[in-house]
Amino acid sequence: MTTVYRVLFMVLLIALWQIASMNVGRNLIPSPLATFHTGTAMLADGRLVGALGASLSIYLTGLFLAIVIAIPLGIVMGGIRLLGKTLEVYVYALSATPRVAFIPLIIALLGLGFEAKITVVLLGAIMPILINTYAGVLAVDTQLIEMARSVGLSRTGIFVRIVLPGSVPFIIVGLRLGATIGLINTVVAELYTAVTGLGGLLAIYGNSFRMEEYFVVVLTLAMIGVVVTETLRLLESRLSGWKTAG
Amino acid sequence: MSSAAPAPVASAAPPDRGRQRIVLENVFKSFERAGQKTQVLADISLSADDGTFISLLGPSGCGKTTLLRLADGLIAPDSGRIAVSGHPPRPGPETGFVFQSFRLIPWATVSANIEFALLPTGLGRAERRERARRYMDLVGLTRFADSYPGELSGGMGQRVALARALIPEPKILLMDEPFAALDAQTRELMQTELMRLWSRLGSVVLFVTHSVDEAIALSDKIVLMGPRPGRILEVIDVGLPRPRQLFEMRSEPRFIELRDYLWNRIRTLVLTDPASDFYGRDLEPE
Ligand SMILES: Nc1ncnc2c1ncn2[C@@H]1O[C@H](COP(=O)(O)OP(=O)(O)OP(=O)(O)O)[C@@H](O)[C@H]1O
Ligand SMILES: [Mg+2]
């Protein structure tokens, strides 16, 4: 049922897009059909695939690094109260600082290439994952812990069987936020460092008013976002099949 | 503890150190909240022999749950001595605990929840499965083995909690209103099963209930507690013969006598104790 409504809404969006393309002057908004043709052409000549590959490799590497650092760190911070209390202020301070502020420093340290770009992605994606993992470990049900203690489970047993599974829903929220911010930062990185990938195309076509190509790139980015968040949603419903509907 | 109850039919066995499974001596416990200290239990002395069934009866907030948590070793007393099997209490498979709020693991199935209590026992996987099957059957939940707690009714959830406490077949059973959420018939069934298991295992049971009838029907001794601070007012020997027919015994003179006595005792306690939540409330009809 949802699918039907989603498709209907897409039809509505395309209709609005069509209307906008006919009414906004100076060819600023290309028609859906023209955009589609440009898109197939860009796919055929390899421009889109090349840029997509470059962006995805930055995005996925940065996101992967963020995940393998943030989840264990969040768990350790939540598990060892003193460590958590010591570090949390700094984590919150860092997450409140716009990460763009670090770009000049990153460029100075790492140059304009791949390392600099994945660092920008990593910095963006890591904070929501870390903060949510940490919050998940802290939000554990103390009544369940007491139950597990009463049963005779060791501290490690309690951590593995109660604390970790209990924080999974939080971690998934963090992953969703991290994945979104990571994608944004991929484009930011490609705009601010060596101009490559989808972000690079965005800059080139935007600056030269080639709006059809420009729209194709924007839509491609949107589609990556959809694929990533839907994958995570699938993972979530896998892991939380125990949650009752409604 | 003196007994002001009607003449006990049979007194408890003389104190025999070897059989005293749970001993509390002059136990005090307070909780601190927002810098304010409340005395929750004051000067509790109680001992429970193997094979005895002891009910704790008393108005809400008099520290019954706290007493069970102390006996399990989940919390430590401020002062006084607690010994279980001769040692300071330590939670584990030798002690089963049915929590008042069931405390089921929401992401684990019914059978996994029940098996959970066997994890620290070192039993093999197959053995754990087999036992979980038996106890699921005992509480009548075989058909729901693969359901999650969120899909169960309150009474079913309580039966899962019950099975989880029983499955290690513990020497000591601490039960906090374990049947409160059950319908009358299921309750009687579970009472009967508990009686059976208890006499087979020879365990000692500390059983919290708000039901006077249930306390009389199941117990050897009834510990009547008063609030603020929680203290033991009286220990009553039930003195009804065993095995008991839970239903028929309700018309026995001793049962009726005890029930009247306890009802009056608790009513007076709730209405006339200045520490009670309902102090001075009028119970006369208009
Ligand atoms: N962890 C805690 N922190 C602060 N106060 C507590 C804590 N646990 C219990 N208390 C207080 O101790 C008193 C006794 O609580 P307890 O749960 O033992 O009562 P109870 O006899 O089991 O009551 P009920 O019949 O309602 O279950 C209450 O006044 C309660 O507010
Ligand atoms: Mg209680």
Account of the 3D structure:
- The complex is a heterodimer of chains A (246) and B (286).
- Chain A has helices spanning 2-23, 32-44, 47-79, 81-96, 103-110, 114-138, 142-151, 155-192, 197-207, 211-239.
- By secondary structure, chain A is mainly α.
- Chain A has one domain: MetI-like fold, CATH 1.10.3720.10.
- Helices cover 83% and strands 0% of the residues of chain A.
- In chain A, helix 3 (47-79) packs antiparallel against helix 8 (155-192), helix 4 packs across helix 6 (114-138) and helix 6 runs antiparallel to helix 8 (155-192).
- Chain A is built from 10 helices and no strands.
- Chain B has 286 residues and is an alpha/beta fold.
- Chain B folds into 2 domains: 20-94 and 171-271, P-loop containing nucleotide triphosphate hydrolases (Rossmann fold); 107-169, no CATH class.
- Chain B has a 6-stranded mixed sheet with strand order 5-6-7-3-8-9, with helices on both faces. A 3-stranded antiparallel sheet of chain B has the order 2-1-4, with helices on one face.
- Mean pLDDT of chain B is 86; it is low at 1-5 and 7-18.
- Classes of the chains: A mainly alpha (246), B alpha/beta (286).
- Chain A binds chain B through residues 143-144, 146-154, 157, 161-162, 165-166, 168, 240-244, and chain B through 69, 72, 74, 91-93, 95, 97, 99, 101, 103, 105-108, 116-117, 119-121, 148-151, 164.
- Bound molecules: adenosine-5'-triphosphate and magnesium ion (MG).
- The site of magnesium ion has 4 residues of chain B, from helix 1.
- Magnesium ion binds at residues 64-65, 100, 176 of chain B.
- Chain B: InterPro entries: AAA+_ATPase (IPR003593), ABC_transporter-like_ATP-bd (IPR003439), ABC_transporter_ATP-bind (IPR050166), P-loop_NTPase (IPR027417).
- Chain B: Belongs to the ABC transporter superfamily.
- Chain B: Pfam families: ABC_tran.
